[in-house]
Amino acid sequence: MDWLRKVKSALKVEHWKLLAVILACCDFISILVAYFLALWLRHDCIYSKIPKDYLHAYLSFIPWYALGSIVLFSAFRMYRGMWRYASYGELVRTVTGSLIASILHVIMITAIFLRMPLSYYIWGSMVQMGLLILSRFSFRLLMFFREGLVRGDEPSGNIMIIGAGEAGQMLLRSVRASKELNDRVVCFIDDNPNKLGRYISGVPIVGNRDEILASVKRYNVSKIYLAIPSASAEDKRDILAICNETGCELKQLPGMYQLLLGQVTVSAMKDVSVEDLLGRDPIQADMTEVFEFIHGKVVLVTGGGGSIGSELCRQVAAHAPKQLIIFDVYENNAYAIQLELKKNYPDLDLVVLIGSVRDSRRMFEVFDEYRPQIVYHAAAHKHVPLMEDSPNEAIKNNAIGTYKTAYAAMVHGCERFVLISTDKAVNPTNIMGASKRLCEMIIQSFDSKIKEGKAYEIPQLYTHIVSEDKNHNGLDDVFEDVKTEFVAVRFGNVLGSNGSVIPVFKRQIEEGGPVTVTHPDIIRYFMTIKEAVSLVMLAGTYAHGGEIFVLDMGSPVKIDTLARNLIRLSGYKPDVDIKIVYTGLRPGEKLYEEKLMAEEGLRKTDNDLIHIGNPIPFDIDRFLEDLDGLMDAAYKNKKNICDIVESMVSTYHPEHKKSSVDMKRKVTAVFTGEDQ
Predict the structure, then answer these.
(1) Quick check: pTM over 0.85?
(2) Which of 3.30.70.260, 3.30.360.10, 3.40.190.10, 3.40.50.720 is the CATH number of 288-496+525-555+601-656?
(3) In whole angstroms, what separates CA 493 from the centre of its chain?
(4) Top CATH class, 154-272
(5) 536-573, pLDDT tens digit by residue?
């Protein structure tokens, strides 16, 4: 029976081809009718008045002309269009094809037969064009009414489209053509005053963004589609902030490429995310130099299973390193990123190692065996409240772990060492921020000693019997030509990271609330994981040693506003459906974070959003000496570890001490009468 199936397959005609044949037949008849009507109208609509010469010329020429016109129309792709979505492009092709055919008609019938009346040429051309357009666009009109009858008179939802440009018009057509939706577009919003009061396919343009709230009520809108892909991030933020107050379902186009590819459809719309409400254009850094730097190099990422570390691994893996080494203490995270990278990059030379940066013997073992040329140091404890309760762990893992990793990198000839820092290192009030400031100072100390040619003066820290100490083993030659460049990268809170507040809020909303915010006025700088990683990688390329790279993250965001927006985006009303509870600032938490200490100053880079902070001078020799005592205190779990850190980090002012001082001042003021 295979031959029968093959015969059936060969005889099967595709649906669009059948429609093309029907349309060609309609065109053939339309051309015959058009020029006969022209001849008939020229002679007062009386057939007997038409001269025999004219009638003979028409009857002899018109069949061949009609067939030739169909061939011409095929060349103009007039039988391949999806007339259900016929638009301006199809109209232009139809008019152009008809005009060319009419010109050929004039030339050929005059040359072969005789000169026809001028009105014959004019009316024939006009009627022909009208019938061709009618045959095509009547199909779309028929489908429009047919779909309206199928859907019923009452739509399930009213849609407002923001943006009455090309994208908005394409979206309107998509909504009307969609079989899945039983919605209708009831109004447009556009900031262009020239469009106010006008209509698009019968839908009014009712005003600018200031009319959104009123129009939602007037037209009973339940869905809002944002169709302005070219708008700036600030404009989108402002418009979405207004839309967010309406309680309507919000969707938007992901980007300009949908418009360029003609893919502006309902299915292409995506949900508005909380990131869209931040109002900052994403960093568009030229990563060419970065990827050229990584290509063919051995790259080590510590903390490679974390949110920042795993994204670093993805970006590095995508640009052909010689070898990628993932180092993490948490095996589940390391295993997850290993599976992902093996699937996406089967040819990647990937090594996944488990271990702690606090273990200098393990770090020396890794550097001895693999000799990484670039190190991205993302391993760290990051949760502020947890570290306040376990301050010694913050010092062990963050400060001492950074020191041991940096030392191993230096003595094994690593080219670049990039520390991932945080804005919490600026004037820290918590031990986590202070520990990251210690990390920055460690990096600056290493860089200073290397540039002075005194790398041998950097002591090795250890808590075990010495076996790999380069100084004590007499292997001083490793310090003769040290060229490792150490830099730090400082940025704010990362959306979607393990320590981000967003996942916490989402979980609380899913559980029905309440959403807990520490303080109504607390603000933070935010950035995406990809932005953070691009900055880290740029730092590794721009580095000359000792810099602290800082991202201009735009305006800070109130956490309270962020929480309320997230509740609305989840389809609920803040303080009505989901309660917001203020729990008070946690230990060591500040109302705001600073990106840079004032005394550091800023220098520009090639990217306007990336700056370099000038290092704050400090006594490096004294600092390096004190680190040994700090490590000893941390490993002995001393209760006064915060006091030791405070003596080493001049900008660290523990929150509990500030509170104590403030309380003493208030008590003194009460007894002295200064509070009156």
Answers:
(1) no
(2) 3.40.50.720
(3) 16
(4) alpha beta
(5) 787 777 777 777 877 666 667 778 877 887 787 777 77
